[in-house]
Specification:
The structure is a single chain. With 757 residues, the protein is an alpha/beta fold. Among the domains are: 166 residues, P-loop containing nucleotide triphosphate hydrolases (Rossmann fold); 86 residues, Helix Hairpins (Orthogonal Bundle), CATH 1.10.287; 201 residues, no CATH class. Helix content is 60%, strand content 8%. Strands 2-3-4-1-5-6-8 form a 7-stranded mixed beta sheet, with helices on both faces. A two-stranded antiparallel ribbon has the order 7-9. A hairpin with a 2-residue loop joins strand 3 and strand 4. Helix 13 packs antiparallel against helix 16 and helix 32 crosses helix 33. The longest helix is centred in the last third of the chain and has 34 residues. It is elongated and about 95 Å long. It starts with 7 loop residues before the first strand and ends with a helix.
């Protein structure tokens, strides 16, 4: 192939059961360089990537994880329709099989063989099979099925070159595996149907031989075309009379007979009825009484580690990016006020704000990836199923709620998998109360200011409160609004436990963090620019002496002050107008609340402490940023000479060079935006200074509760409108605002009463 010629493009689909390692294989083949979209007409996720082998280029498509190709679910229909496409279908199917569960996985393999498509079988989970004393004869399996078989272990990077070689060979040869023997009676009946309706079958389904089997299987889609056909019905009736069984059951039995022969030919089990470590562990982890406490403990540990450890690096990102993008850039543009406002305070301030999201978001995604990779997350669905039943929802409704921890928009769309319309309505009403990833930076940064020693616990309490309120919401709408009675069963496969793979989890965490920053970053930067401009326009046009003043007399300050009055029961005072503005900007994106608060209070700081500001020092700014890491992890001496322990020293970790780090001192500062923020949340109606300071934390937590509960972002509302209509969107807005105001006000007023004695 010449240098100027285009690469040949082949299309390869990865097909297999859920939890067999399809995603790991896909990431491995594409080097995690893929695009995510939706299959046409449905909300099922579609992932595509590129694999290069020599001068040839292959498009890799990750099909949904399914157990069969019977088209009972949307996932099955999507996978089957793609394989059946004559022009746009795959050139090769990589059928991924879990070697530790060969018989179960082979059912789908037989259905793929029936579709007469070029195949390559890929055996995964070989290490688990070995642990269970199961041996798979790779050559015997290949000989029986007349299909090439390779073994892979993406986690240990084994089998990559072999699978590449087999892909290249299989695509060029296009070997279609022969049909397996299902018995003369079944085969002759299928041929009779094919001969009788060949033109119709070929026109509608492209593969008449496969479609004739589907007629006998009474497939939901294929059988529908011939259900009223008297000739076809006569053939099926005669077949069922001859065999004494329903045709679909007979076909399934024949498949399992063949699977039994394949297993006995290619598989050896040293221990029958083997009980795995996973099954033994599940006796405790899924226990009727222990399951819930274990789930709560794991969730608490996840937030505790992610928020506390990630929070220790927030100051570094804040000061490092602030020095570069706000300080240095502001110094360069000091002679051009509006340029400074736009580039340094606006764009630079936005980048600085977005950077502070990185540590906590990355750590949360990393810990979450470890838990997912271990196999526990699927079990969490079973544990929570008990709560789901209390509110009259099927267990499968837990999956859309689980997606809500990432983003509420796909969580709302995922409710389409629920067949019952009332189930969908209840789940969508619950969705916004599950804290999405955009709320985490808000929780983390405010907790680091008001509750520095309890960041993880405070964040966990908010997530847990959201879950409790979601359950309450489901119960309320079930009993009061919709009066739902019907309950559906919940069935899901439990994958075996694995030791989490550190490298894969790190890569997954980075991909998710990057996607989050890419989505949220631009909006926050634009918002900060907008706020800076509004904050530098005076409400009173006759008073333009102090151009950089960012106060309640500015345009945005005047508007924000007006809306503080109805929020006074929550502890929001007139001086705290940025908190009110933050609630409005949070309608665009919840993470924008932090951008609003930091932008406003950082600018307001100039009012109080800057008569003779210190000259900007780039080196000192960068050095001080790096100093915050050991300070937050190990500890420091405060302005009064008192030792303040860091995260690791509080946990009694051994710290090398402890004496060197313990010499770090907290530099005294006249004022900071964080101190200004704490002061703004104080209840000024309390005259005792000590008691007034205590109300700051109570007001901040009430504010966090309001953020947790109140209206979701505009993207979610538009999705709810699309899914349920305008009426239910407004019902959700009214319900959440009422709930948010009531709970937040009740909390603050109770806390204020306790503090005030």
């Amino acid at each position: 192939m010449g240098m100027g010629e285009k690469k040949v493009l082949f299309r390869i689909a990865i097909a297999g059961n859920p939890n067999v390692g399809k995603t790991s294989l896909f990431n491995w083949l594409t080097h995690s360089n893929f695009q995510v979209g939706n299959w046409p007409g449905v909300t099922v996720e579609k992932k595509t990537g590129i694999l290069n082998i020599g001068q040839e280029q292959y498009e890799i498509i990750d099909l949904p994880g399914i157990y069969s190709l019977s088209a009972h679910s949307t996932d099955e229909r999507v996978a089957r329709d793609f394989i059946l496409q004559e022009k746009e279908g795959p050139d090769l199917i990589l059928n991924l099989i879990d070697a530790s569960n060969l018989e179960r996985n082979l059912y789908m393999t037989l259905q793929l063989i029936e579709m007469q498509v070029p195949m390559l079988i890929v055996l995964s989970m070989m290490d688990i099979a070995e642990n269970r004393k199961i041996t798979i004869d790779q050559e015997a399996l290949s000989e029986f099925l007349k299909i090439p078989v390779v073994c892979v272990n993406p986690g240990k990077k084994k089998g990559l070159e072999e699978i590449k070689e087999q892909i290249s060979l299989s695509v060029s040869k296009k070997n279609i595996p022969p049909l397996l023997d299902y018995g003369k009676e079944l085969e002759s009946t299928a041929k009779t149907i094919e001969k009788l309706k060949k033109e119709s079958l070929e026109k509608n389904f492209h593969l008449p031989q496969w479609a004739s089997l589907k007629v006998l299987e009474k497939d939901e889609i294929v059988y529908h075309f011939y259900q009223q056909d008297k000739e076809i019905q006569a053939i099926i009736d005669e077949f069922e009379k001859s065999t004494g069984e329903e045709s679909d059951i007979y076909l399934a039995e024949k498949r399992y007979e063949v699977i039994g022969k394949i297993a006995s030919y290619s598989q050896k089990k040293e221990i029958e009825n083997y009980r795995s470590h996973s099954e033994k562990a599940d006796k405790i982890i899924l226990h009727k009484y222990f399951g819930i406490p274990i789930f709560v403990l794991i969730m608490w540990m996840m937030f505790k580690i992610a928020v506390d450890f990630g929070g220790a690096f927030i100051d570094f990102f804040d000061q490092f990016f602030g020095t570069i993008f706000t300080g240095a850039l502001g110094e360069l543009l000091s002679g051009f006020p509006w340029a400074k406002v736009f580039f340094a305070d606006g764009i630079g301030g936005g980048i600085q704000t977005v950077s502070t999201f990185i540590p906590a978001i990355f750590m949360l995604f990393f810990i979450l990836s470890l838990i997912e990779d271990s196999g526990y997350m699927t079990r969490a669905a079973f544990v929570i199923d008990r709560f789901m039943r209390l509110i009259g929802l099927p267990g499968k409704a837990f999956m859309p709620l689980l997606l809500g921890f990432g983003c509420t928009v796909p969580a709302v769309l995922a409710t389409r998998t629920l067949e019952d319309q009332d189930d969908r309505k209840i789940t969508i009403m619950m969705n916004p109360l599950i804290s999405c990833g955009a709320r985490l930076p808000v929780y983390t940064l405010l907790a680091s200011i008001f509750f520095p020693d309890k960041m993880g616990s405070i964040t966990f309490s908010l997530y847990f409160t959201g879950i409790v309120l979601a359950v309450f919401t489901g119960f309320f709408f079930k009993k009061i609004i919709l009066k739902k009675i019907h309950l559906s069963p919940f069935v899901m496969e439990l994958p075996p436990y694995h030791l989490p793979r550190f490298g894969i989890s790190l890569k997954s965490a980075w991909i998710r963090t990057y996607a989050f920053l890419k989505r949220a970053g631009l909006m926050i930067i634009l918002l900060v620019i907008f706020l800076q401009i509004l904050g530098n326009i005076q409400w009173n046009l006759d008073d333009q002496k102090d151009f950089e003043s960012f106060s309640k007399n500015s345009l945005i300050g005047a508007v924000g002050t007006v809306f503080t009055y109805p929020l006074r029961p929550l502890g929001i005072q007139e001086e705290n107008w940025p908190a009110t503005v933050g609630l409005f900007t949070g309608l665009f994106a919840k993470e924008a609340i932090i951008g609003t608060l930091e932008t406003s209070f950082k600018a307001m700081r100039k009012e109080k402490n800057i008569e003779n500001p210190l000259p900007f020092d780039f080196k000192e700014g960068v050095f001080n940023a790096f100093k915050t890491i050991p300070k937050n992890l190990i500890g420091f001496y405060d302005e009064n000479g008192k030792w303040q322990s860091g995260l690791l020293t509080r946990l009694n970790f051994y710290i090398p060079f402890y004496d060197f780090f313990s010499g770090i001192k907290e530099e005294p500062s006249e004022f900071s935006e964080r101190e200004k923020l704490k002061e703004a949340f104080e209840d000024k109606t309390i005259h005792d200074p000590e008691k007034r300071k205590k109300t700051s934390g109570a007001s901040a937590y009430a504010y966090l509760l309001f953020i947790l509960i109140y209206v979701p972002c505009i993207a979610v509302l538009s999705t709810v409108k699309k899914e349920l209509g305008t009426k239910w969107m407004w019902i959700q807005i009214g319900y959440l605002l009422t709930l948010a105001y009531g709970i937040s006000a009740l909390f603050f007023q109770t806390a204020r009463w306790i503090i005030n004695g």
